[in-house]
Amino acid sequence: xxLVEIENLTIRFGGRPxxxxxxxxxxxxxxxxxxxESGSGKSLTALAITxxxxxxxxxxxxxxxxxxxxxxxxRAMAALRGHRIGIVFQEPMTALNPLMRVGAQIDEALDLxxxxxxxxxxxxxxxxxxxxxxxxxxxxxxxxxxxxxxxAMALASDPDLIIADEPTSALDVITQRRVxxxxxxxxxxxxxxxxxxxxxxxxxxxxxxxxxVLKAGELVETVxxxxxxxxxxxxxxxxxxxxxxxxxxxxxxxxxxxxxLSVEGVTRAYSRNGLFSRRQPPLMAVNDVSFDVTRGEVLxxxxxxxxxxxxLARVIAGxxxxxxxTMTIDSTPYHGADLPREKRGDISLVFQDPFGxxxxxxxxxxxxxxxxxxxxxxxxxxxxxxLIEAIESVGLDASMLTRYxxxxxxxxxxxxxxxxxxxxxxRLVVLDEPVSALDVSVRGAVLDLLARLQSQFGLTYLIxxxxxxMVAAMADRVMVMEAGRIVEAGSPKTLFADPRHSxxxxxxxxxxxxxx
Amino acid sequence: MRTAWMRHPGLMLGLAASFAxxxxxxxxxxxxxxxxxxxxxxxxxxxxxxDHWLGTDQLGRDMLSLIMSGTLTSFxxxxxxxxxxxxxGVPLGLAAAIYGGPVEWLVLRFSDLAFAFPSIIIAIxxxxxxxxxxxxxxxxxxxxxxxxxxQVARGGALTISTLDYVAAARLAGLSRPAIALRHxxxxxxxxxxxxxxxxxxxxxxxxxxxxYIGLGTQPPETSLGLMLRDxxxxxxxxxxxxxxxxxxxxxxxxxxxxxGDGLRDILDPRLRRQEVGRVAG
Lengths: 516, 281
Hints:
The complex is a heterodimer.
Chain A: E1 2-13, E2 16-27, E3 31-35, H1 42-49, E4 57-65, E5 68-69, H2 74-84, E6 85-88, H3 92-95, H4 102-112, H5 120-126, H6 143-155, E7 161-165, H7 173-190, E8 193-198, H8 201-207, E9 210-215, E10 218-224, H9 225-230, H10 235-243, E11 259-270, E12 283-294, E13 298-302, H11 309-317, E14 324-329, E15 332-334, H12 341-344, E16 347-350, H13 364-369, H14 380-393, H15 410-422, E17 428-432, H16 440-457, E18 460-465, H17 468-474, E19 477-482, E20 485-490, H18 492-497, H19 502-509
Parallel strand pairs in A: 3-8, 3-9, 6-7, 7-8, 13-18, 13-19, 16-17, 17-18
Antiparallel strand pairs in A: 1-2, 1-4, 4-5, 9-10, 11-12, 11-14, 14-15, 19-20
Helix pairs in contact in A: 4-6, 5-6, 6-7, 10-16, 14-15, 15-16
Chain B: H1 2-6, H2 9-30, H3 63-99, H4 101-116, H5 119-130, H6 134-161, H7 164-171, H8 176-212, H9 224-231, H10 240-267, H11 269-279
């Protein structure tokens, strides 16, 4: 018999359907994946099963858990969640109480589940954490460790069903792989049913035996994982599978190109002024980094979270200043924020999060025009022309200039962010995780766009990323960064074929298996 | 947006009541049933009747006219104090957020200092220097409002200044004041509007208090607090004379607070984002 049965579930917000007519049956012990783009209704499905839909949602249809209808009474539903369903959320920092030790939080979950047999230490051990972590607070743990604590809490009640909603999308590749492996291992050991929600077909394929593909609130198909990969029936499923493949973009012949940017011994130190920590050495976010960037090159900087790659990007773009060392662009030396105004138009930065990079109160046109202040000689007519050129070059329409950011999807916003970076006709574009906040299905299109713009305008890219597949497809040269230092560099082909440094090896090992 | 307004009946009620009182006050500028200076001992202590809807006071003045005029005084004092408070406090708060360092230290210490003196002390000080009057109440409440708005503006601006579009503006070469005007201020406007609604009710209450102890509005002008003061000796014999202005103050303050709460619910971007966040994906 099925553990979870959903019949004809429809969820509306203010009369607009967000999920329509969904029917699913998930067998006991199955590892079930729900895959789809943002807004496809996959998280809503999970919320409906756990009875956690927002008040504004009107749901119709039938959900059965273990043969019984979900209770309508909130207390009974809470008891069901506490005893039989474990939930792992996307962002462990906000899902954990910052003022409680993690051991106490796991203990609380144990209390709610009325299970006296299991101990906090045993649970921590099961998720691969030392029991000494119990006395720590969430901010003292890394993202991966927090997610492990979340999993331990979900396991506290010894649930029949565990629901993981994008549990790894806030983590870097290495941690992502470890958490996925941990979930698989626990499900095997405990014979638990898993519902795994993701936009990444590869993560789902690595973990699940059956997959439901959702598109815009409708079920496209439900198929065993092997079939999805070998012969997907629906064209949409095929498109999702194809999106995980990154075709290599053309490499560039750089032999006769001159130097654009040179970075010499750049260090960025943060002093740690605690009450009792006078003697602590400063934190070296970037530690004595030197490299050159050739004109027309695509240079990638990879490394785990917290290795200092974003700090380095901000220093190069002129948002932050180096503590020591110099950078030289076109024989103009600078240290970061002292980048001369007339040179600022030559370097631009594309941010990671497409949702935070536009002022919600300004039209797109006004936001895009902002960097043009760096070019005061431009006539109003030329400015207008630049804007239209920039927005059309990223494949959007000039009429969109009068709209506001909330009217655009994540992928469109990232295109607009690229358009803003291009409006001053820069020579060097620094891209900080340009696609990692986007759905897998739109990443390919954005990368294609970046490759096309590069050849069209003769741009030089410095790409910051933790995604090796993307880097392998885009970059001419890769630098691997760990704890503020560059530990290995080379062309992606040679570097990934024969990784020397342990970090490079770990990054390679963490890649999810290819689908085809 | 329309549904958001509909979903908050409290907000509608609060706004409607606040606007009704404000209009009543404004009406007193051009028309009151009787002139408020119209003293007639013959008709004093009249009970509510078709001639005098709310009766008359110990000098035979029409209570409805007094309350209308008193409401206008209250709103004028409260609103002017907000203009002073927001006009000085918001720029201070923004400056603290964008410059940091010594500027921020100064603003915060000034806030602490202003918070440390209750507005009543400031009012007594000003009354000693310049004599009592409505202007005195405005200045005292205004000074009290400055740190409140400075804190709200600084807090909101700090949250927003970590967002990427502010970094993008810095890359685009905008000066810090330009970033504050273009990117920070519009995005904290809703916070400031909500705070202004709350401070209006605080100001009206404070004005009533000042007038009651004789530091605020002086006769022949009138205010709700002054009416309470005039009626206090007669409270046991003619309780209505205290109840009418007291009720007016209570209703105005409650209405403004309900409106402020409701406005916060629909305007505060943090609350709104949470709602969106839960349904996303």
